[in-house]
UniProtKB/TrEMBL annotation:
Active site feature: C50
The protein, known as: Thioredoxin-like protein
A cellular component term, taken from the record's GO annotations: cytosol
PROSITE patterns cross-referenced by the UniProt entry: THIOREDOXIN_2 (PS51352)
NCBIfam families: PRK13189.1
Native species: Trematosphaeria pertusa
Length: 222
């Protein structure tokens, strides 16, 4: 099966699928509906790291809403299990999970999005059975293109602030035609790309600080 997995390159169209979720049946491309989105996977329901992650994402719903970003999770269990787990998350994390969670007990979406580790693939080849999903994050833009991926092992919880940071970077870059430096956060100086001359950059942005001919900073606000 591994040989027929799609290549999820940056800039490629996010594969479509139909699935059951805690908010009803969806067609993924129709659900996107021209919005930014993040799709993030979890190895299983009722697991400790996943519980903390979903609680953290739920608490940031307003921040994702401000950026026009839909959230959708995936966990490799049946729908009924998801509903029970959400109750636990809301209780433990003092939040209210409002985004859908995909039921993927058969790993259909996990295979489609290559949410499987090589260790599990090797184990399946030798012993059979079914694979766990890793912690994947896909940032998808309004054109349904994959703009960023993050892949974590099951043992490591994600950083929600980094997910928001890269969305800010992508959206700022698309809007302003700039790129962002290391550890950049919204409001800090951005970099003028090499394809834009300093003269043109000053016409567009006003003040441009030239550190080197190839390294020029400006500020475009939030």
């Amino acid at each position: 099966m591994a040989s027929i997995l799609p290549r999820l390159r940056l800039g490629s169209i996010a594969p479509n699928f139909q699935a059951k979720t805690t908010h009803g049946d969806i067609d993924f491309h129709k659900w996107l509906n021209g919005s930014w989105a993040i799709l993030f996977s979890h190895p299983a329901d009722f697991t400790p790291v996943c519980t903390t992650e979903l609680g953290a994402f739920a608490k940031l719903k307003d921040e994702f809403d401000k950026r026009g970003v839909k959230m959708i999770g995936l966990s490799a269990n049946e729908l009924g299990s998801h509903d029970q787990w959400i109750s636990d998350i809301n209780e433990v994390c003092s939040t209210n999970v409002q985004f859908p969670i995909i039921a993927d007990a058969d790993r259909k979406v996990a295979w489609l999005y290559d949410m499987i580790s090589q260790d599990d693939l090797d184990k399946l080849a030798k012993e059979g059975g079914i694979a766990f999903t890793i912690r994947s994050v896909y940032v998808i833009d309004p054109d349904k293109k994959i703009r960023l991926t993050m892949l974590y092992p099951a043992s490591t919880g994600r950083n929600t602030a980094e997910v928001l940071r890269v969305i800010d970077s992508l959206q700022t870059g698309d809007k302003e035609g700039v790129v962002t430096p290391i550890d950049w956060t919204a409001g800090q100086d951005v970099i003028v790309p090499p394809s834009v001359s300093t003269e043109d950059a000053r016409k567009k942005f006003g003040e441009v600080k030239e550190v080197k001919p190839y390294l020029r900073f400006t500020n475009v606000g939030k």
